[in-house]
Every structure is written in structure tokens, then in C-alpha cells.
Backbone:
């Protein structure tokens, strides 16, 4: 059973470009969480999704950031018009339910030039 | 607003020694307290976790001590090994519908051979 997969592992963008980060949850997991980790800091919750629904996006910036988890395919975290402050590691976690452990992917390290 | 405070920021221990990392939380609406281990370039991996109705949990060389009245919990690593060198994060899970994790800021542990 493959773990949580994220791609790309590293992403470089120039200011103003768009970044798309993908997360494929573990098989049988329908709950996806996105977290952001700034250098030398802990992970910060961004958004929680179930298939086709955003359940809680309280940790996500109101502008430029969006997330989706379609019926088919991976969950996508989209950052429009990236700025240098968006440079961070973005981790996705999946779970079979909210009461179970969250399993983390290897992360996507975004660098904005 | 930081809801989980972790200390120390870094820790150096000799091989065979005991590593102790402490966390304190403010929000009483947490119902699950996991510890994660993260190696450079990797995602966090669950190490051990405890629920607030238990004061201590031990798994191999790893022990969590939990003090509900003081809102504190700690990780003890007995017989620390160089392979334990990593960053450790405490976390607390919300009892709300999203069940997202709130992480401490991390402790970088170095075990000297």
C-alpha cells in the first residue's frame, strides 16, 4: 500500500506565477489535510477536504490560495501570483476518517524567486 | 496565536542518554496528542500518541507523560541513539469537526556517538 504521494517534490516559481501542488492520498483515505511549514517552524494547518468538499479552510489565506479534492484524481493546492513569502514546504496528510491518524506525504518544497 | 508551545528548540544528548522534550497547550478542546519525528527532506512520521485520559504511554524507548491539569506533556527518549537525531514535533488534535493538528515549533535533537 503506497503512502501519501506528493508532486512535485521541488517547485521553483518566479514572483507572479502560479504554483500547483498535488497530493494523492493513501488508498482508502477520503480525508485530506494541507499544512505549510516555514523554515525553522512547525507545520501550520491550512485546509481540510473530503472528496469534492472543502470542510474547513480556516488556516488558508483568503486571497491567492485555493484547494480542491475532486471525485477523481489528486487533491490540488493552488497558489496564484506567488510571492517570496510563499516559499515553504507544503505537506499533505490523509486519513480514512477524522478520528484516525493522519499520514503525511514527503512534502513539496516551493521556492519563489 | 501559538496554541502549543514546545521546548527546547534544540537538544544535544550523548549516546545512551535520555532526551526530554516538553510541550504545553492552552486550548482545552484538544483530544489527542501525537508526537512526530521528521528527518531532513521528509514528511513528519507519527512516533507515539496519547489521549488525555491516560497519564503515561510507553512504546519501546519512547514514553509520553501527560499532565492534564497542568496542560503539559512531554516525550522521553531512553537510551538515545545517533539514529534518533531528527526534529521532533509535538501536536494536539482539535476535537472540532475538522480534527486538524496544531503543531509545536519543533525540537532539533542531536545524539552524539
Residues:
Amino acid at each position: 500500500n503506497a503512502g501519501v504521494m506528493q508532486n512535485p517534490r521541488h517547485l521553483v516559481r518566479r514572483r507572479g506565477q502560479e504554483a500547483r501542488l498535488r497530493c494523492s492520498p493513501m488508498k482508502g483515505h477520503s480525508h485530506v489535510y494541507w499544512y505549510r511549514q516555514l523554515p525553522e517552524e512547525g507545520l501550520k494547518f491550512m485546509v481540510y477536504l473530503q472528496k469534492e468538499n472543502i470542510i474547513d479552510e480556516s488556516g488558508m489565506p483568503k486571497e491567492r490560495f485555493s484547494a480542491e479534492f475532486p471525485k477523481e484524481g489528486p487533491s490540488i493546492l493552488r497558489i496564484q501570483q506567488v510571492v517570496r513569502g510563499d516559499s515553504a514546504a507544503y505537506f499533505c496528510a490523509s486519513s480514512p476518517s477524522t478520528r484516525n491518524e493522519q499520514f503525511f506525504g514527503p512534502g513539496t518544497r516551493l521556492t519563489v524567486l | 496565536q501559538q496554541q502549543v508551545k514546545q521546548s527546547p528548540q534544540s537538544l544535544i544528548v550523548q549516546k545512551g542518554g535520555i532526551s526530554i522534550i516538553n510541550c504545553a497547550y492552552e486550548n482545552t478542546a484538544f483530544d489527542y496528542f501525537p508526537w512526530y519525528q521528521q528527518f531532513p527532506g521528509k514528511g513528519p512520521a507519527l512516533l507515539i500518541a496519547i489521549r488525555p485520559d491516560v497519564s503515561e504511554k510507553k512504546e519501546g524507548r519512547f514514553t509520553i507523560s501527560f499532565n492534564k491539569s497542568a496542560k503539559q506533556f512531554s516525550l522521553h527518549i531512553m537510551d538515545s541513539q545517533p539514529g534518533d537525531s531528527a526534529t521532533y514535533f509535538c501536536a494536539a488534535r482539535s476535537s472540532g469537526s475538522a480534527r486538524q493538528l496544531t503543531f509545536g515549533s519543533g525540537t532539533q535533537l542531536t545524539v552524539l556517538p
